[in-house]
Design brief:
By secondary structure, this protein is an all-alpha fold. The protein contains four helices and no strands. The protein is rod-shaped. The model has no long low-confidence stretch (mean pLDDT 54).
């Protein structure tokens, strides 16, 4: 049982690192979009909505 606990902790730590990387990528994508169009600037002001606002721009 003792061996399984550290493995779960390590997996959780890896997941947290991946989440931070994904957030960094999400923050980088709107910055690149903001250079081409002024609309994505709103995404940077609202950090909670970028995930919902990302799909429509790609469809356009």
């Amino acid at each position: 049982m003792a061996l399984q606990v550290p493995r779960l902790l390590r997996i959780r730590r890896k997941k947290t690192k991946k989440k931070t990387r994904r957030r960094e990528m999400e923050m980088l994508t709107p910055t690149l979009m903001s250079t081409t169009a002024p609309k994505p600037v709103k995404m940077m002001i609202q950090p909670a909505t970028p995930r919902h606002q990302q799909p429509p721009p790609f469809k356009k």
